[in-house]
Amino acid sequence: MKKIPILLTSLLIALSMAGCSNKNTAFNNSGNTEESSDPYKTMENPRKIDKGLLDYFLPDGSKAHFQGEGADNAELDIDFAMPYENYVVVHENNGNAIAQYVYEIGEKQITTLSYDLVDSNTDFPTLEEIKKMEPVGVYLHKPFEKGQTFGQWEIVETDVPVETFYKNFDHAFVVQSTEPIIGAENKSYIVKKYFVEGIGEVKRESIMETTDGEPLVITSTLESVSKP
Hints:
Blueprint: H1 6-17, E1 63-69, E2 76-84, E3 87-93, E4 98-105, E5 109-118, H2 127-131, E6 137-141, E7 149-150, E8 153-163, E9 168-180, E10 188-196, E11 200-209, E12 215-226
Antiparallel strand pairs: 1-2, 1-12, 2-3, 3-4, 4-5, 5-6, 7-8, 8-9, 9-10, 10-11, 11-12
């Protein structure tokens, strides 16, 4: 049997222990709906937005289920919401912890504004809170061409087929990053994400070397989609 490095195992356990084990990922947005307008509309020179980038998220109110292989927390339930124009909030639940991501749609890129572990009763951040957020990374950046880099990510393949439990796609592109294993000097693992226009991320792979030198692949693959 392949053995996961001890430090990585500890990292997975820590993530599993954090947050809430409730598999319900329904958003709680009580009290925030009155702030759903976009203040940039009133500016003399409003920011430029590429509405096409919204095609890399499922529509507001959608849910997606990803089947997991290789680790218990690879199974994911993901909820999508757009409480304010040009902002997307995603809740990603692996059964042990819920991660909340806030994204901003820009002219050429999708910016990650925040990442937090939350519970199932956490409200959306208010628009005022979002406006104060300092970006923590870039989720995607155009053009979606091989060799394009943004932050620690690189587009390594384009126009490739990808099989999922939901359906097969013919024209995906793949972004890749090498991530360090915390606490393990000179140890790292590779993360690959497969994106399809009209849905967004449809598959995720984490590839790492085990103690016996063989690769261990942990995958989350799209299995079902529910739209409002």
